[in-house]
Amino acid sequence: MRPGQRIETADDLGLLILDIARTDRVERTYNLTVSGPHTFLVGEDGAVVHNFCTKLGVRITGFVRHGINRAIGDGGRRAGVSTRAWRDALANPRSVTSGVDAAGRPFQVYTGHSARVVINPQTGQIASMNPLGRAGVRGP
Amino acid sequence: MTRTTTITLTEQEKRYLMEAAFLPTQLSDIVIAHLQNSRRTAIGLTSAQAEEFRAAFTERLAQGGFDGQYSLTSEGVLLERLIDKFFVESIGAARRRRGANCL
How does strand A62-63 pair with strand A125-131? Predict the structure, then answer.
């Protein structure tokens, strides 16, 4: 995590990391594993936390900048993609295609019920995504 | 009767589609049928056809739409514009919203 990064939330509005501070406070911590989509919500804002893998076992590590922009949308003509839709596409795809891009990197395209997502399976980063139908469109 | 939506293309988008060798035959046939006439820049599609185009555009985007830093190449910019333009559901929703505002 670093300042400027965005955290998905249950209401799709998201949280922005403004600053990270070190502390000497001692707290008990847990390593949680949740069955199914490996996702749970934390805190009053419902921040989405995950140890998330795709149906093909790729661990998702984050987004490239373009992937974030596609997820959020531009608030106008271009629709963003709901968190539920892109996560479902990765976890329960109807189809997956794969290949190598022009720069020699592997890619996978996951087509779900409400979203289509492009990832680099080597880095686990999401490169792009699009909604499929209104069900996949990010809320206001 | 199957409902179709008319999508208006720019000259650049039309040229790109006419030369897009990556499109499967059933989609390039649609392109030729609608756009072969040099003056036409509109294509009428069902939502299922539009979604087939978007799938092909996304596959091509994954193959050649990103540079070394995962920024869009010029082809990537064009492909994403087409992916958004062929999003028939959003076109319908926007029209409905505009209609609602007029009431």
Answer: parallel
